[in-house]
Amino acid sequence: MAVNLLKKRPLTLAAMLLLAGQAQATELLNSSYDVSRELFAALNPPFEQQWAKDNGGDKLTIKQSHAGSSKQALAILQGLKADVVTYN
């Protein structure tokens, strides 16, 4: 059994190194009120570009969820999995 593990280790290590060298994709959901829709539509693309520069080419995608204040707050309370909540 020890021989089999030794034979598999180089393959496992090679696979880990290949995966570690690849750019990672990150996706965030920003939950916010309707009034900030245009603001974040303008801010997100340059932020995503800077993220890629600062993180070795890793891709960041920011998705937006906008609605009225009561609807967004209720969605969070009911389980909306927002990564960022920007309410005023």
Automatic annotation (TrEMBL):
Cited InterPro entries: Sulphate/thiosulphate-bd_CS, Thiosulph/SO4-bd
Q: Name one GO biological process term.
A: sulfate transmembrane transport
Instruction: Say yes or no: keyword Ligase present.
Output: no
Any one GO CC term of the record: periplasmic space
For this UniProt entry, the molecular function terms from Gene Ontology, in alphabetical order, are:
molecular carrier activity
| Signal sequence range | 1-25
Keyword Transport on this protein? Answer: yes
Location(s) in or outside the cell? Periplasm
Keywords assigned: Periplasm, Signal, Transport
The similarity comment for this entry is:
Belongs to the prokaryotic sulfate-binding protein family.
Instruction: Write down what this protein is called.
Output: Sulfate ABC transporter substrate-binding protein
State the organism named in the record.
Salmonella enterica I
